[in-house]
Amino acid sequence: FLELQTVVEGNPMALHRNSFFFAPYKECNLLRAKLSCVTGKQGKQVFFKLRSKSPAFFVTLDLPGVKGHFSDNSFTLLPNEEKRVDFLSAAKISLDFARSKLQIRTLNAI
Hints:
Elements: E1 2-8, E2 11-20, E3 35-42, E4 45-52, E5 56-62, E6 68-70, E7 75-77, E8 83-89, H1 95-101, E9 103-105
Antiparallel strand pairs: 1-2, 3-4, 4-8, 5-7, 5-9, 6-8
């Protein structure tokens, strides 16, 4: 696979990334993704810090039954890279509830 990153000059927060595969996904011999997740809370907002020892492709998060949205979803996580994803909810949710309901999926963990 090939990972391309573009950054807007003068604004390191404006980052765009794309992962390219040179064969259909099912023909790629991908290592199984083993993600770790640390959950935290900042004010009313719950966040998740994700890491993986191998590339994790199309990482998606879900909190079934909870109305809200994630600050990012369906992304690639490179080895030893940390990614923080915030969950923005209209209703107040506890940290324990978020931990127990969180579902994480990746292309190479199925």
